[in-house]
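Troubleshooting entry. The earlier prediction with zinc ion gave an output that would not parse, so I re-checked the input for stray whitespace and re-submitted. Clean input:
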Amino acid sequence: MQPCDTLLFAEIIVTQNESRSIIYNGGIAISESKILCIDAADVVRSQYTSKNTIELGSSLLMPGLINSHTHAAMTLLRGAADDLPLMDWLNNHIFPVEQNLTAEQVELGALLACAEMTRYGTTSFTDMYLIEDATYKAVDQSGLRVLGGEALFMFPSPAYKDFDAGIALVRELKAKWQSNPRIRQAVMPHAVYTTTPEILTTCRDVAEELNLPIHIHLAETPTETAACIESFGKRPVEYAHSLGLLGKRTTVAHAVDLTDDEISLLAETGTVVAHNPESNMKLASGMAPIEKMLAKGVTVTLGTDGAASNNALNMFTEMASCAFLHKVQHIDPTVASAQTVLDMATRNGACSMGQSDIGALTVGNQADIIALDLTQPNMLPMHNPVSQLVYATCGAEVHMTMVAGEILYHDGRYTKIDYPALIESAKDVAKWVQKKIQKRS
Ligand SMILES: [Zn+2]
């Protein structure tokens, strides 16, 4: 018998491995943050022993979900302004608050996001925001995993006075956080309409020099396309490609307004697409052509976008929305199958994070695992676990969340976050946000 740190046993394990195996009555042995063995419970019990054996009974274990595009601290703005035209929403409600944010407020908003993601089964996320250092502090505390980046603009942000200072900050943040294996850094120019060609080529060069991923909002709306053609003579994807920005290290968020040629360009360059169906629906940006992208071999991942344009950071409901949106887009119920969508939220998300050791439960991978309570009425009866996860689960069934072998949430309790204190802080900051918006409008 081999000792290990933790043993988990449950009724069903959805592995999301290469062959998408589902293990009934299974077990997982974990040591030093990694999966040591995953097999039938009998096999695991006969080989491993642990003082920390958790019998989860009528539960389903699966890889923690990966949110491929969000702005965590925007939880501060959740519900502060909805149902407005995009420019009114941005200029009169979002920007006046964001321009005045402090590091403490960003950390609070990000910690609230981490609490929400932990509660609803998301273990990793890609984050672009202002004062990203504050988000890293929240992630460090919460135990989650992030691929983060300071949002880089051609104008000043609360974190830097100009772009040169912004890119210096990217180097600084990399040096500061690189010893933390759960906090990874990317280069994140905000969008083509908030940057210049010089900024984008510098971002490309710095990403190559430091071997970092690139993440950018791209082709979100027809309005963006029109402005890009007017300013730079090209559509957004063609423009990004002409600057050498596309490639395997790059993830573009949204990719809604695309021509067939642009889809081919994304496929040929190996560029990853982070699809945000709920945000695209709420802001009425349009419907991303993910079926065409997948058919051409583009890796498509799933994200929620920020809480001001969703308004939840819930990857379970996002999966259902994704499947439903594309079925109605094509008037064809066979598109965006449950397995395709679950892959987007797990395995494909791992590609976007540049991490091959998450997104599937296999030997050697990180033990980023969630457990769902199968006795909840909406989980019964169980004909097909993958169908249940995409179409019936709301996320509240998650009763245990683990990252790198460490339990972050179990049976209603957070192990790393003082949640009662967080509730009070969230109530306090709401007053400040409302004052900022009222002053402007
Ligand atoms: Zn976004």
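This one parsed fine. Residues 69, 71, 217, 253, 305-306 surround zinc ion (CB under 6 Å).
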